[in-house]
Amino acid sequence: MTKSTIRKKILKLRKNKNLKKYKIDIPLLISILKKNNKKNFTVGGYYPVNNEISDLEILRELIKNNIKISLPVIRKNKDMNFYSWSFVEPLKINSYGIPEPIKSKIVIPDAIIVPLVAFDNNLFRLGYGGGFYDRYIAKIQKKNQIFTVGIAYSFQRINKVPVNKYDKKLNVVITEKNIIKWEFFFLGDVVGRSGCTAVKKYLPNIIIEKKIDFVVVNGENAANEGVGITEEITKDLFKSGVDVITTGNHVWDQKETLTHIDKEEKLLRPQNLIHPSPGKGFGIYNLKNGMKIGVLNLMGNVFMKNCEDVFICASKFLEKNILKKNYDFLVVDFHGEITSEKMAIGHFFDGKATLVVGTHTHVPTHDARVLISGTAYQTDAGMCGDYNSVIGMDKNNSINRFLKKNSKKHYPAEGEASLCGVIVDAINENGLANKIDHFIFGGHLKNTN
Ligand SMILES: [Fe+2]
């Protein structure tokens, strides 16, 4: 369909619908704006016309939250700018029939609420055809970051918006059914001091830059010795922005974890450890709008420590736990040695989990993809550790061990770490993945971000 056919179709639909029952979650929208902007930010809104979803109530709430607002003004040369406004200043109708401020000054908003005719899962927007917003965003983004929020009715979503190089993706779209797209970040095994230092140093910024909503890391090699995790490191990782920590075969290598894990809801061990074991392998956690995300930690059977059959465990799990019934999204960390077992688990969960990602080998595989029924998958996330090493451990000592020469117990390399993982776009309605990107940042591996 061409842009003009889509416009006609959606505008007709919007005109004929009874729109009173459609309500945007304003506190959610405001919390997203606050999270993604510095203090004392300004928001650009729009004056709704032609059955557009109204943002006036949102703008009023923003003022109540001491957030400054502004509205667009179009000049004769079709140049658009935002002018400050506060509901008490007069407006006049412009040549497009849209009310705009007359007596105020130009401001550069930090975030704008963008009107739209249609949008797609990649958050491309179809506007009214004038190109005002695309030109304005391009102009501002040369110097300033601008956070763009589309608000729309859910029926305005289409499969694919036809785009050209001038079209700008929105940062987020919110409909009456809530946020359309979520960003989940999974980081592979954090190894030793080097891995922990890099997570602490870079994760807070990555969360802001990539608009990450939820972070899971595998922390089973995070202790200074490269095996297990301590209570102190667990707390540090949470402070850096990690929401849930998964583990694997080394989970008990720091003895304190045997008691600490029962007190820490957000620290998981593999679900299929020999029964009974302290802790738990599955948890359900809150996303910022109250939606639920499940995190399941499993461990493979091939070349791994003795544990219960992982496929039987996964089957039992899926009998009781259903996507969109027990939780809105599900992330599965499969801690295993061999690729075939990981891939089989990926397909086993296809359509029933948002993401299945492997951990344990400490080498990122290049096979990130969305499987046939919508589950994002990568065989191994790789590690967060120093790659000038043998899977995170001192390379000379490792070589000597293979040579059966004098060597010590393995110990972590302590050079600069690479952060390795995946970022998944997930969709509200079905809890499945729209997209998965592998993520490699810093250290000895080639950056992909
Ligand atoms: Fe492991």
- The chain-level mean pLDDT equals 92
Given helix and strand content, the structural type is alpha/beta
Percentage of helical residues?
A: 10-25%
Number of domains: 2
Strand content: 15-25%
The largest β sheet comes out as: 8 strands, mixed
Low-confidence stretches: none
CATH superfamily grouping of the largest domain: Metallo-dependent phosphatases
CATH topology name of the largest domain, in short, is: Purple Acid Phosphatase, chain A, domain 2
The number of helices is: 10
Terminal CA distance: 34 Å
Q: Based on DSSP secondary structure assignment, what is the total number of beta strands?
A: 23
Second CATH tier, the architecture of the largest domain: 4-Layer Sandwich
Name the bound molecules: fe (ii) ion
Instruction: Tell me the name of the CATH class of the largest domain.
Output: Alpha Beta
What radius of gyration results from the CA coordinates?
Answer: 25 Å
Q: Give the overall form.
A: elongated
User: Biggest sheet, strands in spatial order?
Assistant: 6-3-2-1-7-10-11-12
